[in-house]
Design a protein that fits this description.
The protein is built from 12 helices and 8 strands. With 253 residues, it is an alpha/beta fold. The protein has one domain: Aldolase class I (TIM Barrel). An 8-stranded parallel beta barrel has the order 1-2-3-4-5-6-7-8, surrounded by 6 helices. α1 packs parallel to α2, α1 runs parallel beside α12 and α5 crosses α7. Bound molecules: 2-phosphoglycolic acid. The site of 2-phosphoglycolic acid has 13 residues, from β8.
Length: 253
């Protein structure tokens, strides 16, 4: 059975001080023991959050990194730096990075391989925009993103990858995919993994749903067979709402 995975994507919110306060509140109020919990603050907030979470099993991740280890890449951070700072996870290719920073499938594939090589757990994101869903192209679009994402990634490596399906029309909009829509796409993604790696391996990969997941809708989304957790934006910025989602996963564990 796959361990539920709940990750908070803080986006460009919470300074080192405010982030440390939220991390401390999450650590103190958390009662779950079966869920893998991760918070992903802005890179500058990593150090204070890592310090606040010391001694807890809550993991820390960043929201982006570069493909190279060091060098003349102004403004970027490397996987090695992320790891040395105490983070173990990295969100990659979030739709906001695809949209505002021009990240492509090939670039996200390269970043995923780099994260794996260094020992970080990559959380690459896929998802269709509203027009693509309206045109009935969502399955094709996401399938192509997933195929590009896993290109050249071995069977041993893929089980360490946590894939996030985030329909772009549901991110920050308050509109959520229905549990059926989420399950349909998660099953498609697992099918692609099965074709590429066989079902034993595909069954090990966690596939998260993201897009306006909140305490009110978490249980029914997480109850779906192929929904193994959530990537939470807005609702991860308060300890109580984030932990309510963690608790929904804990109950299903
Ligand atoms: P949201 O964001 O929960 O605020 O919709 C999710 C995400 O973008 O990861």
């Amino acid at each position: 059975m796959r361990t539920y995975f709940i990750a908070g994507n803080w986006k460009m919110n919470l300074s080192p001080k405010a982030g440390a306060e939220l991390a401390t509140a999450i650590k103190e109020k958390n009662t779950s023991s079966k869920v893998e919990i991760v918070v992903c603050p802005p890179a500058l907030t990593i150090a204070s959050v890592v310090a606040s979470l010391k001694g807890s099993s809550i993991g820390v991740g960043v929201q982006n990194m570069y493909t190279e280890s060091s060098g003349a890449f102004t403004g970027e951070v490397s996987a090695e730096m992320v790891q040395e700072a105490g983070a173990g996870y990295v969100i990659l290719g979030h739709s906001e990075r695809r949209e505002y920073f021009g990240e492509t499938d090939a670039f996200i594939n390269k970043k995923t391989k780099k994260a794996l090589a260094v020992g970080l757990t990559p959380i690459p994101c896929v998802g269709e925009v509203l027009a693509q869903r309206k045109e009935g192209k969502h399955i094709e679009v996401v399938s192509n993103q997933v195929k590009a994402l896993i290109d050249g990634i071995s069977k041993e490596e893929i089980s360490k990858v946590v894939i996030a399906y985030e329909p772009v029309w549901a991110i920050g909009t308050g509109e959520t995919a229905s549990p059926e829509q989420a399950q349909e796409m998660h099953a498609v993604i697992r099918g692609i993994l099965t074709d590429a790696y066989g079902s034993d391996t595909a069954e090990q990969v966690r596939i998260l749903y993201g897009g306006s997941m909140k305490p009110e809708n978490a249980d029914e989304l997480l109850a779906k067979k192929d929904v193994d957790g959530g990537l939470i934006g807005g609702a991860s910025l308060k300890a109580d709402s984030f932990l309510a989602i963690v608790n929904a996963a804990e109950k299903l564990s």
